[in-house]
């Protein structure tokens, strides 16, 4: 998955893909991908490993804004997810589709057609390669259709749910 991350008013393109041995391939600005492993070391505490280096950092996230302490330095990172950005041009009456970018199993469906959801609210959770991936509402609106159910196995590209912007009064 490709993300744009802004830290200290500088934006970088970061590509993250699953590594077959666990962890992720991470490439920053098209550089050679590095194998990164790691995970939670506590509630907001993470440890990442890359080659001979191990870095511990605190992390909290809210609506794609990441507050982190990295090597003793407080940072604020804004993460721009292309799945969410693709919905930024929607006008009233248009439909938005949220698709799964990887094959996996549906482990949770939170909501059904007709439900009102808020931007960032989790609607579907897909387990892929032993990781749970949350698919969130890209904008405030109404679920027009939920195309999957718990236990279903889906392929890459399957539409998980469709949304419509809320009607203005």
**What is the first-to-last residue Cα distance?**
37 Å
Percent strand equals over 45%
Cα-atom radius of gyration: 17 Å
Main beta-sheet annotation: 8 strands, antiparallel, barrel
- Give the class from helix and strand content and strand pairing: mainly beta
CATH third-level topology of the largest domain: Glycoprotein, Type 4 Pilin
Report the total helices: 1
User: SSE order, as H and E?
Assistant: EEEEEEEEHEEEEEEEE
* Major sheet strand order: 1-2-3-4-5-6-7-8
Outline type: globular
How many distinct beta strands?
Answer: 16
- Uncertain segments: 85-94
| CATH architectural arrangement of the largest domain | 2-Layer Sandwich
Overall number of domains: 2
Helical residues, percent: under 10%
Report the mean per-residue pLDDT as an integer. 77
Top-tier CATH class of the largest domain: Alpha Beta
Walk me through this protein's architecture.
By secondary structure, the chain is an all-beta fold. It has two domains: 2-80, 2-Layer Sandwich (Glycoprotein, Type 4 Pilin); 90-165, OB fold (Dihydrolipoamide Acetyltransferase, E2P) (Beta Barrel), CATH 2.40.50. It contains one helix and 16 strands. It has one helix spanning 82-85; strands at residues 2-7, 10-18, 24-28, 34-40, 45-50, 53-62, 65-70, 73-80, 96-99, 104-109, 116-117, 122-128, 131-136, 141-146, 153-154, 159-165. Strands 1-2-3-4-5-6-7-8 form an eight-stranded antiparallel beta barrel. A four-stranded antiparallel beta sheet has the order 9-16-14-11, with no helix packed on it.
Furnish the topology, listing elements before pairings:
Blueprint: E1 2-7, E2 10-18, E3 24-28, E4 34-40, E5 45-50, E6 53-62, E7 65-70, E8 73-80, H1 82-85, E9 96-99, E10 104-109, E11 116-117, E12 122-128, E13 131-136, E14 141-146, E15 153-154, E16 159-165
Antiparallel strand pairs: 1-2, 1-8, 2-3, 3-4, 4-5, 5-6, 6-7, 7-8, 9-16, 10-12, 10-15, 11-14, 12-13, 14-16
């Amino acid at each position: 998955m490709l993300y744009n991350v802004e830290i200290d008013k500088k934006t970088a393109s970061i590509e993250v893909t699953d590594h077959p041995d666990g962890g992720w391939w991470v490439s920053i600005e098209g550089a050679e991908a590095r194998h990164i492993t790691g995970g939670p070391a506590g509630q907001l505490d993470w440890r990442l490993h890359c080659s001979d280096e191990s870095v511990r950092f605190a992390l909290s996230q809210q609506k794609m804004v990441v507050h982190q302490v990295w090597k003793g330095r407080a940072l604020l990172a804004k993460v721009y997810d292309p799945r969410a950005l693709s919905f930024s041009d929607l006008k009233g009456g248009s439909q938005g589709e949220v698709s799964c970018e990887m094959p996996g199993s549906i482990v949770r469906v939170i909501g059904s057609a007709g439900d009102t959801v808020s931007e960032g609210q989790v609607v579907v959770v897909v387990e892929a390669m032993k990781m749970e991936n949350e698919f969130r509402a890209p904008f405030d609106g109404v679920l027009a259709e939920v195309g999957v159910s718990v236990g279903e196995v889906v392929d890459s590209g399957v539409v998980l749910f469709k949304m419509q912007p809320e009607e203005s009064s």
